Amino acid sequence: MGQLRNEKSLVYTADAARYEKMQYNKVGRSGLKFPVVSLGLWHNFGSKDSYDNMKAMCKTAFDHGITQFDLANNYGPIYGSAEINFGNILEECFQHYRDEMVITTKAGYDMWEGPYGDGGSRKYLMASIDQSLKRMKLDYVDIFYHHRMDKETPLEETMQALADIVRSGKALYAGVSNYDKEYTQKAAEILKELHCPFVVNQRRYSIFDRTIEEDGVKSFCKENGIGIIAFSPLAQGMLTDKYLNGIPQDSRIARDHRFLKESDITEKRLRQIAALDRIAKERGQTLAQMALSWVLKDDEVCSVLIGASKPSQILENISVFEEFSFSEEELSRINEICMK
What we know:
two-stranded antiparallel ribbon, globular, 340 residues, single chain
């Protein structure tokens, strides 16, 4: 953050063939389209990370047709630093490509001290969108999400704030994240009455975490024209080759204990990962590619959000859209492995 930038860094021309390298899906019944693979800035875009690497990842993503960049007000660490870094990258490299990009951010989790820096109140959301736009040096974001259900705040208040943010021009569409079926349905009803374009629910979804199937959100969104974008489709790295031989020193577990913990990598889980890897190899894919393909195997998920620590990881994952289909035998084997 705050690095000095010279004129040479302003010269960036995107790959002319970028749109031939990516598939795009409609988001619910809206006119908006998401790339099949989108880039999430949850990790590796904070104050402690390499700015040059962040910039290289954004360029690699955009050069290969990834047009959506997903953030939240408290991504970092420190809180807000991912938006600041991304704002600097936008200013340096992407100013003339803004209309080709879908830039999203969220508010709902803790952001600043005191009773007004968390949750779903109008005060928090209105302050958050202004702060996010300032950090990213933008006039608007394409989607502004409420990041989580807040049962202490009337949903009508939260949705009215989202609708007013869209009406003000600070966001083009409204979205929700981590909403269950009941809250998604109520949100959709309120926003319809407010004539606010509600287009997407962002939920965790992977071979190892199928909650959105079990709680009915996946089918509800499809039936009601609401898009689903999946985060953590690789189960925070477990559905990659990273843990095939145990826990490496450079893994997220070794670096950051806030989310994935060493206790999550049990002997049972390691056996499952190895068995899934064998199926992936039979399909001619890496485990990560197969895991992303699995999430996208039907038309109920319009995009998967990937995280990356280096450009090569993005290049591996974008090839996923070339092979979504699974045989009934493959799906049965995958399910059987996950139940063991």
